[in-house]
Amino acid sequence: MRHDHLISASQLSRADIEAVLERAAEIDADPAAWASAHDRAVLGLCFFEPSTRTKMSFETAIKRLGGATTDMGSVESSSVKKGESLADTVRVVEGYADALVLRHPSEGAAKMAAEFVDVPVINAGDGAGQHPSQTLLDLYTIRENVGLDGLSIGIMGDLKYGRTVHSLAEALTNFDVRQHFISPESLRLPRGVRFDLHQSGAQVREHTDLESVLSDLDVLYVTRIQRERFPDETEYEKIAGEYQIDVQTLEAASEDLAVMHPLPRVDEIDPGVDATDHATYFEQAHNGVPVRMALLDYLLSTEPDQ
Ligand code: NCD
Description:
binds N-carbamoyl-L-aspartate; alpha/beta; four-stranded parallel sheet; Rossmann fold
């Protein structure tokens, strides 16, 4: 992989994805062998929005490579509160870190930040835009459970605002995958993402109900309705509570169906599903560590301007 920054899944070729997933599998098989691969490396964490998994798994990943983190902390406790611009913040943190992980509520924030710094920037979510490192761990989980080529995947829930969906859908066009998008009309995939999928010749179908496709799926990727991105709370209230699954729903599914979710879940997956063989979401979250170790290894090993 030869990229200075990871901003969008559309940057990733099949070869890039396979290289990271292979490296992640090597790391998973023998994590101790990587314990000092990047000692002295410091990862800068700039999270302008809440995070549990992404931030903590990046922290664990750099520590397991022998490195350390420096963390901007919450927006409330940082100079952002005093009115500092994003460009200034990242230019300052660049001097403290060898790579930056940035999460921000504005679409395009990571791309903009990358224009101001020389160290690698990893987009850990830019509003309703992209979340490409999540995609790498999603792909790793799919590959480990059902394999990527010949796959039939259902992606359900908030396809409009869900950035994990936008990144995953684009990355899946590198593989022989049938993508079924299941959402209410008002939360369909954004036009730009649909256009990109169409341009790449992806096998895509849209549905408003799960029942019509469930039995054909190898993976069902469920997402949270992104309440914080709804301009109008009453619109959210209308949709919240739809597109939920429970053990009964899954009776119509293949017994090998893997149910995934980037988490956090609210009420999209009933906790009763957790005890079934379908539940793959906690394994998915745990895969964040080896996959982000592999990603950091690539980005930190790449000389700028190569
Ligand atoms: C996702 C996000 O932040 O986009 N969370 C994550 O990183 N696993 C999904 C979400 O918030 O719904």
